[in-house]
Amino acid sequence: MKSKQKSRLKWMLLPCFIGLTCYFSSERTKGADGLNVNIDSHPIDRSNGASYASMLEQAQKSVVSVYTAELVQYLRYSGSSRDDLLREFLGLPPMNRRGSNVETHKVPQGVGSGVILNANGYIITNNHVISNQQGGVADEILVRLSSGKEYKARVVGRDSKTDVAVLKVNAKGLSFAKVANSEQAKVGDVVFAIGNPMGVGLTVTSGIISAKNRNIGVYGMDGYENFIQTDASINPGNSGGALVDIKGRLIGINSAIVSRSGGNVGIGFAIPSNLAVNISTQLTKTGKVNRRTIGVYIAPISEAEAQHLGLSKKSVVVQRVLADTAAAKAGILPGDVITHINGRGLEGAGGLRSSIAHLKKGDVITIDLWRNNKHRVKLSIE
């Protein structure tokens, strides 16, 4: 069988050899000069906005690759596995393991991305990037800078309800991200996703903001979501990386995609920078997150009721108001339908929870209600 394969291989290669022989022979006899290509060395004029290379070169310095590993221990001993099987079959106790030793092996677990928030080595990423399969923290976390330098990282804090985690590396003088006000971002703005997709290395893709204030339920009923949606290519490994605007400022932390195949189909989601920085600051200061509430139990409005009242299907109905809370003091009543906060329409019950949860104590907000007719109240966050 092997000889036939070798014979067939010879016949496959022989015509190529003959062809090459004839080609070189022909070239020599004709005396051809060969292929000459002139390369235009004039650089592109990037001063007229035709390229984002300069901006992205700086922005990429603040993005890191994150690698996690699990440390697995097992017992190595002198002795025969055949002896063990025989003793087990005969019902005898296992052999004495004197001389045995425990060995630790590192098993690669996952690949993600992160963004440097300050020069002293604080890095934001996704909680799921640095978590193990049981929901705990990975045994080892390695951060690789765009320069190629690597550092072991420790977890400062993490929040599963927003999928934000903060890492710290022992380094100073790092290039860090400039952060934009994500509230000012608009649908149609050009954005760039920077990260380490599929572990291939630091990569930049471009797109636009497709939508804002998305709540897709990826973090469950207890999660807080307020995503920026983008069609910039985001793939596994991009999680925790940067979504930046045309000025190179951080506008979001890439976190999730909607896909049937597991790869990019142009529907990606990023945590807005305002929310990500708010959570990171709290985790860095106290190691935990304090979330605000106004003191109401709410439920989605039914489609029939929304249509009858001429309201958005994403409005919510107040079912109960707790005594001595901001909502009670502002005069909100059971049966009220909340339609807007600070003039902005809701994105369902989850959107309302997220809008309020990360406000600061003393913040004053305006809530639009439907009660027989339109009604507006102001309340102070407690």
Summarize the structure in words:
With 382 residues, the protein is of the alpha+beta class. It folds into 3 domains: 60-75 and 101-169, Trypsin-like serine proteases (Thrombin, subunit H), CATH 2.40.10.10; 182-286, Beta Barrel (Thrombin, subunit H); 296-380, Pdz3 Domain. Helix content is 22%, strand content 34%. The protein contains 7 helices and 18 strands. It has helices spanning 2-30, 53-60, 81-90, 273-286, 303-309, 326-330, 348-357, and strands at residues 63-76, 101-116, 122-126, 140-144, 150-159, 164-169, 190-195, 203-214, 227-230, 242-244, 250-257, 268-272, 296-300, 316-321, 337-341, 344-345, 364-371, 373-380. The strands form 3 sheets. The protein has a 6-stranded antiparallel barrel. The protein has a 6-stranded antiparallel beta barrel with strand order 7-8-9-12-11-10. Strands 13, 14, 15, 16, 17 and 18 form a 6-stranded antiparallel sheet that branches. The longest helix has 29 residues, at 2-30. The radius of gyration is 30 Å and the shape is globular. The chain starts with a helix and ends with a strand. Residues 1-29 have low confidence and may be disordered.
